[in-house]
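Might I ask for a little of your time on a matter of protein folding? Here, with my thanks, is the record as I have it:
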Amino acid sequence: MDIHEYAIKRGVTQEMRDQARRATQAKVDAYDLSQARKERDLTQSEVAAKMGVSQCRVSELEAGRLATMRVDTLSRYISSLGGKLVISAEWPDKTIPLTI
């Protein structure tokens, strides 16, 4: 039995696999952000003070809750680390960078 057959037998749908994949990627992205903060020798509390939010909010962001994070909050987080948030709209034939 291969993995595809096993998933079917267990009732795991493609939608469930896609959701798990997105959740895993969110955790990886959040980990990368927390590592960027640590590389800059900043604590969550210091970043929170720069952002004007609670340390708890920074912790949530770094725990992988990016999907529910407002764009301006994420932008302030990245700015507090000395970076800038870049967002773009993409199609197969075109990419449009969006200014925040």
About this structure: The mean pLDDT is 91.
